[in-house]
Sequence to fold (367 residues):
Amino acid sequence: MGEKRELTVELGERSYPIYIGEGILAEAGKLFAQHGISAKSPVMIVSDEAVAKHHLPQLQSVLKEAGFSIVTAIVPSGEGSKSLAVFEDLVGQGLKAGMDRKSTIVALGGGVVGDLAGYVAAAYMRGIKFVQVPTTILAHDSSVGGKVAVNHPLAKNIIGAFHQPELVLYDLNTLQTLPQREVSAGLSEVVKHGLIWDAEFVTWCDENADRLLALDPDALGYALYKGCSVKAAVVSQDERENDLRAILNLGHTIGHALEAVAGYGELLHGEAISIGMVGSAMLAVRLGAPEEIYTVTKHVLRRVGLPTKLPEHLDTEAIMDAMMHDKKFQEGTMVFIVPVALGRVEINKTVSSALVREIVEELKREE
Ligand SMILES: NC(=O)c1ccc[n+]([C@@H]2O[C@H](COP(=O)([O-])OP(=O)(O)OC[C@H]3O[C@@H](n4cnc5c(N)ncnc54)[C@H](O)[C@@H]3O)[C@@H](O)[C@H]2O)c1
Ligand SMILES: O=C(O)C(=O)C[C@@H](O)[C@H](O)[C@H](O)COP(=O)(O)O
Ligand SMILES: [Zn+2]
Fold:
C-alpha cells in the first residue's frame, strides 16, 4: 500500500483535514467520529449512478458498522444533475428520511455530486455539516475550498454558496474505475494548479503524464497531494474570492462559457477548461508574455490527453454572450486570469471584448 498523506485547509475554526491514500474509505467510520459527525441523526450519502455501482456498498457498510444510520440518494451521472430540480428532490428526500440540523451529508462522487450535495448541505435547514469523498481526479479541486453550487441553463455555478466540508476523504483506490476520458479531464485542473503556482510541478506533470494516465497510485497520490496543497494554500488566504482566489479560475472565463453554450454535456468541465487555459496562454502572449507560455501550456495539456482546439460549431457570439452571464463579468468588464510566467498568473480586468473574440476565433483554428 502506498503512502498516506494528510494536509489541512487552514481556515481558523472552520479548518479541516484532507486525507489522501489507498484504502482510506475503510477508515471512514473512525474518521467521521473523530471529526464530530453525529451518529444520532441520519447521515445522507449522495452519489451518482456510476459511482454508486462501484463504491457505494463499501462506504455504506463501513459507516453502518461504525453505528451511523444511513439514508442514500442516487442522482443521474453527469453535469445535468447540478440543477435546482435535483437540489429540490434531495431536500425532499432528506425531510422524508427525518434528517435534522445535526444530520450530515456525504458527497460520494466527482465534482458534480460534490457541488450539488454541498449546496444542499449549505441550504438544508440553513446549513448542516457535510463530508467530501471525492472519486474523480478532478475532484481534488472541487472537494476542497467550499464552493458549492448548481447551474442555471444560462450560466455555470450561478446558484451557490461558500460552505466548507468537515473533512475530505480521498481514497485513491476509487480512481481505478474511472473511464479514460474522465482521467484526462481531471488532469486538466491538476495542470492548472501547476500553471498558476508551481512551474516545477508543470514539468513534473509533463514527465509523468504516462504514469498519471495509467493511474499509477504513486504518481496519482503525489499529483493530487500537490494539487490539493495549492488549492488549500490559496483558499486559506482568500476563502471568499475577494482577490487572490480568483487565480483558481485560470481558463474558466472561456471554459465556463463553452460548457454553457455546448449545453453542459458535449464538453466535460476539464476539457472546456483545457481549451480555456490555452486561450489564456494566447492572451498572455498577445499581452507581451514569452511565447513559451503558450507552447508549454498546450504541450502539457496534450500530453495528458486533453483537447486544445475549440469545437468550430460552437457559435462565437453565443460564447461571448455566455461570458457576460458568468460571475467573472463584473462592473462591465470580463475578468481574465492571465499567465505572466510559468507558474505565475495575474488578474486582468482590462481585456477588450474585441481581443477576446479574436482569441475565441484563434482557438477554433488550433491544430
Ligand atoms: N467546487 C469547485 O471548486 C469545483 C472545482 C472544479 C470543478 N467543479 C465542478 O466539478 C464538476 C466536474 O467534476 P467531475 O469532472 O468530477 O465530474 P463528475 O462528477 O460528473 O464525474 C465524472 C463522471 O465520472 C463518473 N465517475 C465519478 N467517479 C467515478 C469512479 N470512481 N469510477 C467510475 N466512474 C466515476 C461520474 O458518474 C461521471 O459520469 C463540474 O460541474 C465543475 O463545475 C467544482
Ligand atoms: O475554487 C475555486 O475558486 C475555483 O475557481 C475552482 C474552479 O476549478 C471551479 O471550477 C469553480 O467551481 C469555479 O468557480 P466559479 O466561482 O467561477 O463558478
Ligand atoms: Zn474548474
User: Anything to note?
Assistant: Residues 188 and 274 are 6 Å apart (CA to CA). The domain at 180-364 is CATH 1.20.1090.10 (Dehydroquinate synthase-like, alpha domain).
